[in-house]
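Protein in question filed below.

…
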Amino acid sequence: MRRQTAVAGGASAGSSRAFRLDPFSLPVRYTAAIGGAAGGRASILLDGHQAVVTRPWLGGDRWSVTVPVADFCGVAVRIVAVGDSGAIGAVVELMHDEPGLSLPLVIADEPEDVAADWQAWGRVFNLPLLVVAHDGRVLQASDRMGGPSFGASKPRRRHSYFAARRPRFLSRRKVGRQTSGEIIVAREIIARD
């Protein structure tokens, strides 16, 4: 039995055409311009475990590469210029160390619209959220936004340390003390008829 995949159209980064993939309708097949200006358009099949990128080769042949989702650095968001008017947009992409394998997921004219999609894609793929700065540096979102930092975890139960030595109710009892022995002298009274 064959699985059906959703098909989505693509748009290049920086165009004024909006493009959005739904993170909860995987697998999805779409075409997009990847790898910068020299990369060209590629056909992409994306599911929860891997991405298959197919693009034409110089001689007219097609080549295909399968990349596991775990090989991607994270889900990145970058702010881009849209057109010549000076307007800004945002691109959410599945970032790879090799720029030719970074896959666009959302292209929006309004940067405010992509925050929920950015976080949803990070949860779906269980990858860190990244921010691409205007100078090209890649920062983790927690570094940029001052996210929470976690210390060493505490034992789950307070008395788990004593579990092998004493029962829990005995750990609350106080240790008995020996007092100086008092001698009680008395005469036995027995009732006789």
About this structure: Confidence is low (pLDDT under 50) at residues 1-7, 9-16. The chain has one domain: 6-145.
